[in-house]
Amino acid sequence: MHCVTKDKTCRRKLPQVLAGMTASLLTLDLVMAIGFATVLTAAILNAKQGLSATTDQMSWIASIAFICQPIGCVISGLLVESVGRKWAMVIVNIPFLVGWLLYHFAYSIELLYAANVILGIGIGFVEAPIMTYTAETCETEVRDILTSIPGVVVQASFFLVYLTNFLTDWRTAAGINAALPVFIILYVTQMPETPIWLLSRGRHEDALRSLCWLRGWTTPDDVREEFNQLVKYDNDVNKENLTTTAKTNEVTDENKHMAYAKCSNEREASKGDDEIQEDTQQSQTQDYNPKPHNFLKTDKGVPHSWLVRCKGLLKPPTLRPLALVVTFFSVLHFGGITSMRPFMIHVFHLLGMKDEASWITVGLAGVSILGSTCTVVTVKWLGKRFLTLASTCPCAVAYLLLGVYSYVVLGPGGASDYARTWMPLTLMTVIFFFNSVIGQIPWMLLCEVFPFRTRAIASGLASALCYAFIFTASKSYLHLEQSLELHGVFWLFCVINCVGFAFLYRKMPETEGKSLAEIEIYFSS
């Protein structure tokens, strides 16, 4: 009996894992594009032969994608609502394919600019589909794990990018990367559309088939209760939209019953005579009789007005979690690693680690993989709130101590006799580890804190602001270093992390183990 139950549970979770892996694949696509600038910089910056870029040209090549990402993020939200989550994930791979091919065949700096612009827009396109698809296809216990896996993929992608710098030339790497979006397109086409999006378009039969696929390739009767809840949720959302629409049509309970009946008939057609006779005998003793309250009337014909959706951004159920996530992103990106990442080798030189700087970067990327793996393993038991607060504190302390070390030992007239490279290296290891622990948490929140009707737009907007923060943080680092010196920059990062800790302590709820409906109710109250 125990084995049968275990097999049934595995069968139910397997298709959700397969569907959720699309987020990891798209994340790999995204991060490889972001990290490729590191390989390109090392290869063509002031190169003596082949394609060469000046310092000014290279700064634009490395950053122009971040300017374009917010454009892709906003368009992504519109695309996800228009064509659905599944086909949006197919379409977003086209810019990646074009960008990688442009990289591979680029013969001028202008083509490198074009490749970065296209990849930047593609990176922005990816955000909304990743966030919404996993949230709408997976059950709570599976969703919590799957939404944390892309964090490991992010760090692993950076590790591969840094390692590529030592193993092959940049054109070959770009050509290899061009195969990735092709594979992802083929993979995504085998996945179903999300049931809640199909319901929002009045496609009840398709929604039921999708839910059956996602819950273990099962029968309509096995998912009847969950389907009823989705229908009720869709009806409740549509009723809110009635205040802004002049006309609605009603769909009777019979339409939902027909969705079950049609799917059941298709299943009957594939059965043998003995199975049909057995099912007929069962149906005589237990007729299908759906409860009236399970099938609420659907307001079919309600227009999916973009004005209504945009106004929904200003309502508490969306505005409150949006403020939380955007503030979280600002603390994460202005608070250290993101600002320094493009200039890590430069920072290590200043800290007295000139000879080992390149390999230290690779090693710290490995540390980041370990940290993000810890998030995947522990988030279910410790929760997102605890991990966030417990990781922000060590980062603040490490930045404080790095500032002290830089001021006392490395500053003008400092105690250089006390310079020990293991001290800053240890502190940087602490920062990389705990930063990778919390790095994926705001993205996990994007999957679950927004209501369905504004989820795509709000996720796209939050992602756009996130990349705007990344661009600003990266561009401003050298100016900050010139103005505040290295120790002042570290102390500024310490202050940002302390302020972030105070805000998140007061405003961030624990969402682990809670359903999307429960989270929505929390932010609505």
In short:
By secondary structure, the protein is mainly alpha-helical. 78% of the residues lie in helices and 1% in strands.
What brief labels describe this structure?
single chain, 525 residues, mainly alpha, Growth Hormone, Chain: A, 2 domains, two-stranded antiparallel ribbon, 24 helices, globular
Number of strands: 2
Helix/sheet category: mainly alpha
Largest sheet: 2 strands, antiparallel
Give the helix proportion (percent range): over 70%
* CATH class term of the largest domain: Mainly Alpha
| CATH A-level architecture of the largest domain | Up-down Bundle
- Which word captures the global form? globular
The number of distinct helices, counting runs of at least 4 residues, comes to 24
Strand order of the largest sheet: 1-2
CATH homologous superfamily name of the largest domain?
MFS general substrate transporter like domains
Please provide the ordered H/E string of secondary-structure elements: HHHHHHHHHHHHEHHEHHHHHHHHHH
Q: Rg from C-alpha positions? A: 26 Å
Unreliable residue stretches: 243-252, 270-304
Q: What is the terminal separation in angstroms?
A: 43 Å
Number of domains: 2
Average pLDDT confidence is: 78
